[in-house]
Amino acid sequence: MQPDDRSMAVGARVEIRNLTKRFGSVVAVEDTSLSIEPGQFVTFLGPSGSGKTTTLNAISGFTDVDGGEILLDGTSILSLPAHKRNIGVVFQHYALFPHMTAADNVAFPLKRRRVPKAQVREKVRRALELVHLADYGGRLPRELSGGQQQRVALARALVFEPRLLLMDEPLAALDRRLRDAMQVEIKRIQEQLGITVIYVTHDQDEAMTMSDVVAIFNEGRIAQIGTAADLYERPADLFVARFMGESNRLPVITCDEGAVAFAAGAETLRLRARNATEAGVRGMLVVRPENVLVGRERDPGLDSSLTGRIGRVRYFGAYCVTEVVLDDELIVRSRQPVEVALEAVEGDRVHVQWNSRHALFLRSGEGDQLSGSASSFLDAADGGAEAVAHG
Amino acid sequence: MSIVQRVGHAGAPSRPAGPGGRALAALFSREFALTIPALVLLGFAMGYPLATIVERSVTDFPGGSGAFLDNYKWFFEEELNRVVLLRTFRTAAIVTLACLLIAYPYACAMTVVGWRMRLVMQAAVVAPLLVGTMTRNYSWVILLQDKGPINDALGAVGLGPLHMIGSLSGVIIGLVQISLPFIILPLYASLREIDGRLMGAARSLGATPAQAFTRVYLPLSLPGVVAGSLVVFVVTLGSFITPALLGSPQQSLLPQLIAQQVNQLLAWGRGSAMGVILLLVTLLLIWVGSRASRGSAALSGGGRR
């Protein structure tokens, strides 16, 4: 656990190839492949039922798989039972043994591995020190707070020096403040030990702040994998855009490379957008609220603009969220620092504007249902697009 | 049944153990008032006869006169008494062990099956209690006869015949069946509280399935094991009808011996002394058992969240 034996606990390389798992007729994980470098902190992010926990359980050995392969440092682990995989697991519900003290809990994996007694004592002491609970070894789990219990669970999962640590929503049961502190703590320990971590969460803030790589799961597949910045700034599809942070989404249709048509009331506007290639593709123009400015005057520095009236303004201290209602009841949100945000009264007519390099076109997937109004609205834009394209 | 209730309470975070003033206040609290009808009934139906028995055991002697503890002295001096006392405890221990071996897997299964199956299993446990004691015992008389259905079945597969009726083995078979509900129900209540996910955690930490059971599941189930075993043990110690109907006078148990002293020899004092001895030993066992299970119940209490 100390820097001197760090070389022993260096992270494992994990490769998942075409993993498939069905529960009856429900496909939980479908043909998922993923490669994780040694020492990486990878987060599986996604809504519940998206397959992230099933994938984790397949790695830990709690569920068997219907197809595919899982390799740890190039060796398949699928034929190994859970207790021979030597992978640390931390659970959302801590899963500490209630009849054992914290120290006995931490000693449990060492005893199963027949580590000599004197070494057990030493390793337990060091593991508890690592999670700052050196003086709590004699306590029973029920005598510890939730955060302390989770730290004991972490020590227990690390004490046998696994090269891969799996964490299944480990902080979900803790309150916000404690969660933030634990995020820092987990990250520090991972960096100190250099082990590979796979972390499952549905909290995107947690995913963004802790991970080297985030894999977004949707309906049993990885929708996108990349750094937090990749996913936030260059989402691969609408699901990722919607899941990572807030976004304004305007139904549009592409008219040519780099431009889309948007039906604003009776007229059709041509807006510039990244990622728009061929003409006639339906989708959404995605703009993050922090890139949207609201002003009474047209800002010459921003090349995209729509008009509407001020709706609700919400004050968050550090920033304001201003809603602008477009002519067709679509709402565009702008999030700006309080001193930048326009002081406006509900109903004022304003310009919502952004720089087109912050505007991304994403095509509608099969799963993306458009509401009736958005659909008829697109049809209006459809005609307009022709006009714009040929006009 | 009181043991079951006490074990149930042991899991509660705090026990009202305080200075005498607080105990006195609790005595007159409203909650206490609710127990008065039961206490009155117990006082008349149990307390008074019990006091009479204790009194008789030290005042009523076969010859008409004797010293204070003469009846007790007689009990331990007579070899037959000691043999029967030992046999009674040995039988109770065998019955308890057999019940435990049947009840543990059954109660385990109850925690993992679906609710429909669980209902069926629960009904199967409780149903025999709805049949009268005499009916059940006479049913066993029929079943266990030398030419009864069980021996017929054994004969059909080339075994037996076994002599069961009128022997200790017949008594044990009967007592096991009659006592099963008293161990399955508390055991199930205890196993139900064990977080099944702990076994997964144990596996992930390197425990084989067998180790996960012996190191985690088994220790956490001990409160239920102790509570259930204690009930069966105590019920068996005091059982009279089953040994009388299924056993033989040559292998009688203590309750039969007591009945003999009282009914046939009219030695009320000696019978009372034997009753008191049985009661004291039983109380001692309950005390030891509930202490043991309170300790482990307190430990497993942390698992419930």
From TrEMBL, chain B:
Record field: transmembrane: 32-51, 89-107, 119-144, 164-189, 225-246, 266-288
Question: Chief location of this protein?
Answer: membrane
Superkingdom in the source lineage: Bacteria
Q: Which Pfam families match?
A: BPD_transp_1 (PF00528)
Coiled coil (residue ranges): none
Stated membrane topology is: Multi-pass membrane protein
Q: GO CC terms on record?
A: plasma membrane
Keywords tagged on the record:
Cell membrane, Membrane, Transmembrane, Transmembrane helix, Transport
Q: Could you tell me where this protein is found in the cell?
A: Cell membrane
GO terms for biological process?
A: transmembrane transport
Q: Where is the ABC transmembrane type-1 domain?
A: 85-289
PANTHER family per record: ABC TRANSPORTER PERMEASE PROTEIN, INNER MEMBRANE ABC TRANSPORTER PERMEASE PROTEIN YDCU-RELATED-RELATED
* Similarity field: Belongs to the binding-protein-dependent transport system permease family. CysTW subfamily.
**Under what name is this protein listed?**
Putative spermidine/putrescine transport system permease protein
Q: Which lineage ranks, top first, belong to the organism behind this chain?
A: Bacteria, Bacillati, Actinomycetota, Thermoleophilia, Solirubrobacterales
